[in-house]
Model the fold of this input.
Amino acid sequence: MKSLDRTGWITVGVMLLLGVLPPFFYWIGNEFYLLLATRLVILAIAAVSLNLILGYGGMASFGHAAFVGIGAYAMGIPVYHEFYGGFSAAASTNGLFQLALSVGLSALFALITGAISLRTRGVYFIMITMAFAQMVFYLFQSLDEYGGDDGLVIEMRSELPWINLDHPLQMYLLSFVSLVVAMGVVHMIVNSRFGMVLRGAKGNDERLVTLGFNTYLYRLTAYVIAGAICGFAGWLTANFSTFVSPSMMGWGRSGELMFMVILGGAATALGPVLGAAAFILIEEILSSFTVYWHLPFGLMLIGVVLFARGGLLGMLQGRGRGK
Amino acid sequence: MDTTLLFIQILNGVQLGLLLFLVASGLTLVFGILDFVNLAHGSIYMLGAFICASLTFLVGNFLIAVLLAVPITGVIGYLIERVLIRQLYARSHLDHVLATFGLILVIDTTVQIIWGPAGISVPLPDWLNGQTELFAGVVVPTFRLIIIAAGLAVAAGLFWLVNYTRLGMLIRAGASNSTMVSALGVDIKTLFSLVFALGAMLAGLAGMLISPITEASINMGGEVIITAFVVIIIGGIGSMKGAFVAAILVGLIDTLGRSFLDDVFALFMSQNAAETAAPAISAMLIYILMAVILALRPQGLFPPKVR
Done:
């Protein structure tokens, strides 16, 4: 294994802290920080998946929260039918079945919408991904059987072999390990031949096309992978909060995910995690002062765009390293 | 199908379409000329509605309130451009989106602090509040006719402004090649500010016109901006003609889908299944339309010739 550079060490250090600190807080009887960290880690998985397409692939999706929602509903709806009957083919509390449904449906939605959206570029792509996500939002809002606008309370967490998701520490550890795996998968993808083409197409699409690559297919594949990972994050979210509602996939949520990636540092392994951590901290701190915490948060967002290029990781790396 | 009901719903569809055009025209104008993606356009629409609501209570007349609120919205748009938007022209579209997303949070929360979280209903003067019998048996609310008339008038005014005035000529020239226009001695920065303010006024006007029907509420901006995006994507971003055609199309399809889709479905499935499926499908109808059009024409119906 090649030796780690400075960024690598920062990444390992932060991830070790994230793996050890929250269980420690739980151990000394402070469950609140464990729950906060669980939310952080799940958000980070969604942000890591967005980073694959936004950071490395240059596809600015403004509809990424739709995958969280689809993944979460794909976990909640089988439980709903198990408890209240109707549509018995989908009724199940089996976690592996729900997981397959969450990941599969998210990937399918990514395939269909990606095939259409990726025919376009730039600002069209931003708006179309946003519109498709809003379509799913309105779809679930109109489905009265699953609670419509009010959302769906999930009666029971997924049943998995060996793991009990009702136990907060096990829930956290599963989420944390999932984050590490997701980061590993994305790392492997971007450093593979596939990832080279993806990053190359971000820099200069024409060059890659001239070299004979069908960049559309590369982009679409990355888009589907990102959707699947994010659907997994949705499955975790549903299990964590035992509640799912259309507001989970509103465009505000998609904007927040984008903010996390950009704030943390796009196209870096650790960036999305730092961004998610910063977002959770900002939200916790600001909302403890005022119910109007979105006002300073919005100003902060504008400030980040105007002044902080390269994100938090860029700052940690020191001057001149961030791009 | 009841023809009277169909006629009334078509009228409602046109009315929605014209309001969408007012919002979408500002978006497409700003994008076409300034190459700027303004996510916060919907918030200006909402702000216009709230300012108009307060003025209606202050001066006691809705029409005077609109006449006052439109220039106020324009000034606010001008200031936003001077303070923030101007810094972002050289940046990527992604930066535009993120910064204006922040701007949305700022505007929406400010509105919430000033006016409170609940919506405000806006009273109409009596002569606007009644019904008008268009012809035998067809009675429609007078105010909806006023909205249609106002929408058509503004659309016509906008076409005249862009195509037949000196300012419009500069706007079109700026859209083709802003560097050249500026080299010819035109103060391009002021022109850009004016265009942005014009877009803000159009969006604000749309918000004011809809507020007596729905009410002024915080969420109205977020709801309209996505639909406006769908409109300009379908029409072709930057095209005024495309925005108009697409806005009417989206307005009609959305309205008619919501009212008649269950009847259409009932023709080939059970009444029960139709009543379950129709609301879900009609909520997605305009997005399906967008997907189909994009699959056929990725640049929209009327792609602008330049750029």
Notes: Chain B has a mean pLDDT of 88. The longest strand of chain B covers residues 131-135. Chain B touches chain A through 42 residues (CB under 8 Å). The two ends of chain B are 46 Å apart (CA to CA).
